[in-house]
Each structure stands twice: as C-alpha cells, then as structure tokens.
C-alpha cells in the first residue's frame, strides 16, 4: 500500500496517525499535486492528496474515506465505533477537526501573501471566527474527559490532535492554548503518542 502525500499536508498526517495506530505497514510517497510527474491526478481526479493506492491499484480518497478504509483493515484498535450514534459523533468530531485545518490552511496562506494580494479583514475575521467557534465547541464537549468521545481513543482524537497541533504550528499568533485549557491538556496527551510523531507536517 502506498500513501501519496506531502511533507506539509495535515490531511496526509491524519491518515498517517491512523495507519500508525492500527500498525498497518505502508510506503509513504512524497507526491506534490502541482508536480505533473507526481501522478496524483491519475489516481485522484480531483488532483488532491492524500491518496491511498492499494496493492491492486485501487485508489482511495479523500482522508475521511481513507481512514475508514484503514480502520476496516485491522480489528484493533477500533477508530470508528460500530454503534450508529457513536459513529456519527466521532465523524462529527472529524468534520470539525478537518474544518479547523481547512480554515487554518486558508488563513495562514493568506497571511503570507503581500498586503495587496490579501483577501481583506472581513474574510480573515470570518476564517478566524470559524476556528474559534470550533475550539469553543470542542472545549465544551471534551470537558474533563480523557478522550474526545467515550472512554477510548478514536478517530475523534486523531482529528482533534491534528487540528490543534497544526493550528499551533501554522498560526502561532492565535495562542489558542491560553483560552482552551482542556484542549491544551488533551493536545499534550495526544501529541506525545508515537503515532502522532510520525509525519508531523512541516510549516513553510
Ligand atoms: N477533503 C480533502 C482535502 C485534501 C486537501 O485539501 N489536500 C490538499 C493538500 S493538504 C491538496 O491536495 N491541495 C491541492 C489542490 O487542492 O489542488 C481530504 O480530507 O483529503
């Protein structure tokens, strides 16, 4: 199995954490989508990474679909619960984490542009408000628990940890840890796991 990604992709990192947690061997291939030699568009018509290319050539995308596939490959640990309500709750955490990552990517990319090329104050405020609202919800839902959902590590924790660590690295000016103590403590617990240390994205 080959995972196509880049050193900077938070979505590829989420998949790598899942693969590490499940102890599933894979080959990581650095494949920048914009590089015509990278073959990404041949595997994913949308031209986006991450893409998981199975040994029989089947390509799986996007990251939520890949992690669901990966979870089905090995029984334990179970990242997405079977129970309907639990599964929806865990996937909702993933949607929130992925949404924080998307807003962080857009905002941090915009902030690196020359002033004349930037989107403007209203747009930036809107992106930042998404992040703050999502973190507020996460902080309240996590409360004093050790895991995002239930009493076991799940995909919810992967998505949450990836989003928080990426936010730390891509938009350090937000200093979110000062306002969200439960999330800050959870981020420490999560990023100390060996699975999270694999494929930590570069920020440039
Ligand atoms: N919803 C997708 C998002 C993937 C995504 O945004 N990938 C970025 C890199 S992190 C990408 O490939 N960008 C190139 C492009 O959109 O052309 C997922 O979860 O996999």
Quick tags:
single chain; 204 residues; alpha+beta; Glutaredoxin; Glutathione S-transferase Yfyf (Class Pi), Chain A, domain 2; 2 domains; 4-stranded mixed β-sheet; globular
In terms of quaternary structure, the protein is: single chain
What's the number of structural domains? Answer: 2
By DSSP, the count of extended strands is: 4
DSSP strand (E) fraction?
5-15%
Overall geometry comes to globular
CATH class of the largest domain: Mainly Alpha
Structural class: alpha+beta
Please tally the helical runs, counting DSSP H or I stretches of 4 or more residues: 8
Evaluate the radius of gyration: 17 Å
Low-confidence segments: none
Q: Which architecture of the largest domain would the CATH scheme give at its second level?
A: Up-down Bundle
CATH topology of the largest domain: Glutathione S-transferase Yfyf (Class Pi), Chain A, domain 2
Question: Helicity level, as a percent range?
Answer: 40-55%
Q: Which distinct ligands sit in these coordinates?
A: glutathione
Structural summary, described in words:
This protein has a 4-stranded mixed sheet with strand order 2-1-3-4. The longest helix has 28 residues. It starts with a strand and ends in a 7-residue tail after the last helix. It is globular, with a radius of gyration of 17 Å. It has 2 domains: 72 residues, Glutaredoxin (3-Layer(aba) Sandwich), CATH 3.40.30; 110 residues, Glutathione S-transferase Yfyf (Class Pi), Chain A, domain 2 (Up-down Bundle). The model has no long low-confidence stretch (mean pLDDT 95). By secondary structure, the chain is of the alpha+beta class. The protein is built from 8 helices and 4 strands, in the order E-H-E-H-E-E-H-H-H-H-H-H. Helix 1 packs parallel to helix 3. The structure holds glutathione. Glutathione binds next to loops.
